[in-house]
Design brief:
Strand content: 25-35%
Number of strands: 25
CATH superfamily of the largest domain: Carbon-nitrogen hydrolase
Number of domains: 2
Shape: globular
Largest sheet: 7 strands, mixed
Bound molecules: 2-acetamido-2-deoxy-beta-D-glucopyranose
Number of helices: 8
């Protein structure tokens, strides 16, 4: 078994009971995501002709074609490709121009580029006259055509990300850019007959000079015959309210396709780590496809249901990875009112207070009440507080307290925001592994601006307090814990990361007396991070 195979961890279905019930109902579908090692344009700031741009994109699309065929052979009904995976990144507004195509609004026109490739050529030529930098433009929907044929040929829904050009008129629309068109970072969804069924323009750009923010936020969904509705969003959007929280909470969307190009950052925001937390906490299925790029520190894709996951994180191999998994349908409109499916209807951000754990799982719930088992022995040191210190974690100044001894009851406060931890180490952990409980309440301002309330138990990377908050993937210390805080937001993303990028999950979480808690016992891998990541969207503009 190679390293990359080892790391493509299949988590045993935690809640087998649910799967058995569902199997009888037949409400399953097969999803696929492809982590693509994108072939980059070595000089993305240099303006090239359309022909060169197409040659570049074709090299990535050739890989897509092979993977689409492979996914279809494995029964996939929907396949998601990553953000920027066809064209690459680091373009300027001008240098991306030859990569642009115009994706028509599927709400206004029904179009299969594969079946009818020439339909929009004249209008596009007119649009593109305004792009002064284009000289060799002939046909302007080659990428759409190729993707559409890929969907049709393989009879699957296909989600891809590409740059979209939308003309606008400055005298009618003051938001229209000076060069008379918008350039959007765009997800396009094709049905299994090649028809464009959805188009989403990324709302929360991550320092992307080539692209415009759409004039209004787009809430985009599409409907499949096999699983009902899916919502669409992209990369950095995952940290913001719009559009995704509105899709999930207000529009009842429980399945999301998520092309991304995410740079990993431990201890809190590695790609698969946050994808896992998001799916679990929002109570949704997330089909996440990331780029593989060693230079940019990008890897981490997966198929996540609130209960289980198939994921891939590999910082060593210079290859792509196709993941295919059969997952339960979660669209409430399809589930109907059948009582046996009630357990699949989750309330977003409410936690999992009443998990029905079958005897077969290795999951140990807190069966004897929330706190039982911690600090039970006559150890007066258990409730002794240690001295707080500060350290920088993910560019934010956390207030931390060290975890001393085998067990303890600790509080770390940043101002009036306090995190409470009960822990018990269950193996004889190596001396050199030190841990701390950290609290942060404030506006994060580096690489994006967003307000956070965070409680995190982290394995420090060294022996000194300043090393708490640094990046490590490894730990040997096994720990049972219960973590809680009085968050001012209901949007709390709970995550448990084990050694070697093993994704774990709380065995319980939820709201109790105005506090959000999570607990976990009996992990089989060392604890790297346990985090309650609260996003206070309302305070982002402070
Ligand atoms: C838990 O699951 C078992 C087996 O699937 C079932 O018999 C039982 O009724 C369930 N309990 C609850 C409270 O849902
Ligand atoms: C993209 O740009 C950033 C910042 O300008 C740079 O650090 C990075 O190396 C570039 N990456 C590629 C793949 O060109
Ligand atoms: C923009 O709109 C104005 C007013 O309707 C019109 O006169 C002009 O021709 C339009 N410009 C373009 C480039 O379509
Ligand atoms: C193609 O797929 C779409 C979306 O599933 C559907 O609405 C349409 O009827 C299909 N068209 C044909 C010709 O089968
Ligand atoms: C932990 O400490 C808090 C106060 O600091 C106390 O209320 C609680 O009872 C303690 N829990 C245990 C299990 O010792």
């Amino acid at each position: 078994m190679t390293l990359s195979e080892l790391r493509a961890v299949i988590l045993a279905a935690w809640f087998t009971g649910i799967h058995f019930t569902l199997a009888e109902e037949g409400l399953f579908y097969t999803a696929a995501v492809y982590e693509h090692q994108v072939l980059l344009n070595p000089e993305p700031k240099v303006v090239v002709g359309r022909k060169a741009a197409l040659q570049h994109m074709d090299r990535n699309l050739e890989v897509f074609e092979k993977q689409a065929t492979s996914a279809a052979r494995q029964g996939a009904q929907i396949l998601v490709f990553p953000e920027d995976a066809i064209h690459g990144f680091n373009f300027s507004r001008v240098s991306i121009a030859p990569y642009l195509e115009t994706v028509p609004d599927p709400g206004a026109v029904t179009w299969s580029p594969c079946a009818d490739p020439d339909r929009f050529q004249n209008t596009q030529a007119a649009y593109l006259n305004i792009l002064h930098h284009l000289t060799e433009l002939q046909v302007f929907s080659q990428v759409l055509h190729r993707l559409s044929c890929m969907a049709q040929k393989n009879r699957l829904f296909l989600v891809a990300n590409m740059p979209d050009c939308q003309p606008c008129n400055r005298s009618l629309n003051p938001l229209c850019p000076a060069d008379g068109h918008y350039q959007f970072n765009t997800n396009v969804v094709f049905s299994d007959n090649g028809t464009i069924v959805a188009r989403y323009h990324k709302q929360n750009l991550y320092f992307e000079a080539a692209f415009d923010t759409p004039p209004t936020c787009e809430y985009v969904t599409f409907t499949t015959p096999f699983a009902g509705r899916f919502g669409v969003f992209t990369c950095f959007d995952i940290l913001f309210r719009e559009p995704v929280v509105t899709l999930v909470k207000d529009m009842g969307i429980r399945q999301l396709v998520y092309p991304t190009a995410w740079m990993n950052q431990l201890p809190l925001l590695a790609a698969v780590q946050f994808q896992r937390s998001f799916s679990y906490s929002a109570g949704v299925t997330l089909l996440a496809a990331n780029i593989r790029s060693a230079a940019m520190g990008m890897t981490g894709s997966g198929i996540f249901t609130p209960w289980d996951a198939l994921y891939h994180h590999d910082t060593e191999a210079e290859t792509g990875k196709l993941l295919v998994l059969r997952v339960p349908v979660l669209d409430p409109l399809l589930l109907g009112d059948a009582p046996e499916r009630a357990s699949l209807k989750l309330v977003p951000f409410s936690g999992f207070p009443k998990v029905n754990i079958t005897e077969k799982t290795e999951f140990n719930a807190f069966q004897r009440g929330l706190y039982s088992g911690f600090c039970l022995k006559e150890d007066s040191s258990c409730n002794i507080q240690s001295t707080p210190f500060t350290s920088t974690m993910m560019y934010d100044k956390f207030t931390l307290v060290p975890l001393h001894g085998k067990e303890g009851n600790l509080t770390a406060c940043d101002g009036s925001f306090c995190c409470h931890l009960l822990f018990q180490k269950t193996n004889s952990s190596p001396e050199e592994e030190i841990y701390a409980l950290g609290a942060f309440d404030g506006l994060h301002v580096v690489h994006g601006t967003y307000y956070l309330e965070v409680c995190a138990v982290v394995r420090c990377t060294g022996l000194h307090q300043e090393s708490c908050g640094g990046e490590t993937e490894h730990a040997h210390t096994l720990m049972d814990f219960h973590l809680h805080a009085a968050f001012s937001t209901e949007h709390v993303f709970a995550g448990v990361l084990g050694s070697g990028m093993t994704l774990d999950r709380p065995d319980k979480s939820g709201w109790k007396n105005g506090r959000f808690y999570m607990s976990r016992r009996g992990m089989s891998s060392g604890l790297v991070t346990a985090v309650l990541y609260g996003r206070v969207y309302e305070r982002d503009s402070e």
